[in-house]
Amino acid sequence: MSFSGVNYFAVIIAALAAFGLGAVWYMVLSRPWMKAVGKTEAELTRDAGPSKALPFIISIIALFVMAWMLAGLMGHLGQVSVRGGLISGLFVWVGFVITTMGVNHVFAGAKPALTLIDGGYWLAVLLIQGAVIGAFGV
């Protein structure tokens, strides 16, 4: 698979948009999310120092890789448009993301609310990334 036709500016914008969405999503849903994972705010803010930044670093790298792969998939399918991006994002979410999360969460004994909150975020991420990549084109 060739990535020569990928618009890397679009990939970067898509990753940053998804990261921004995550900040808003989890600020708005912080209380239900904490309840779903069974943690308190004190437990989550207890750790200080450089390791506190690690989840954010991993997140932005993962979002960049996700946008890059989605752009490659869209280019490979020849569907580099907003509509094609939305459809590709939805198909990737249904086929790979929510199915994997569902299995992992049920075996981990996670509350369904956690799957809804996190799964909803990943759906929104893939739709936004697909739309951004589609809007910018190759």
Describe the protein in words.
By secondary structure, the chain is mostly helical. It has one domain. 80% of the residues lie in helices and 0% in strands. The chain is built from six helices and no strands. Helix 2 packs across helix 6 (112-136), helix 4 crosses helix 5 (82-108) and helix 5 runs antiparallel to helix 6. The protein starts with 7 loop residues before the first helix and ends with a helix.
What is the compact description of this entry?
The chain has 138 residues and is mostly helical.
Map the helices and strands.
Layout: H1 8-28, H2 30-37, H3 41-45, H4 54-77, H5 82-108, H6 112-136
Helix pairs in contact: 1-4, 1-6, 2-6, 4-5, 4-6, 5-6
Features:
mainly alpha, single chain, 138 residues
Structural domain tally: 1
| Number of separate strands | 0
Tell me what portion of residues adopts beta-strand conformation: under 5%
Residue stretches low in confidence (pLDDT < 50, at least 5 long) are none
Helical residues, percent: over 70%
Mean pLDDT: 93
Q: What Rg do the Cα atoms give?
A: 16 Å
Q: Sheet with the most strands?
A: none
Helices, by number, come to 6
Class inferred from helices and paired strands: mainly alpha
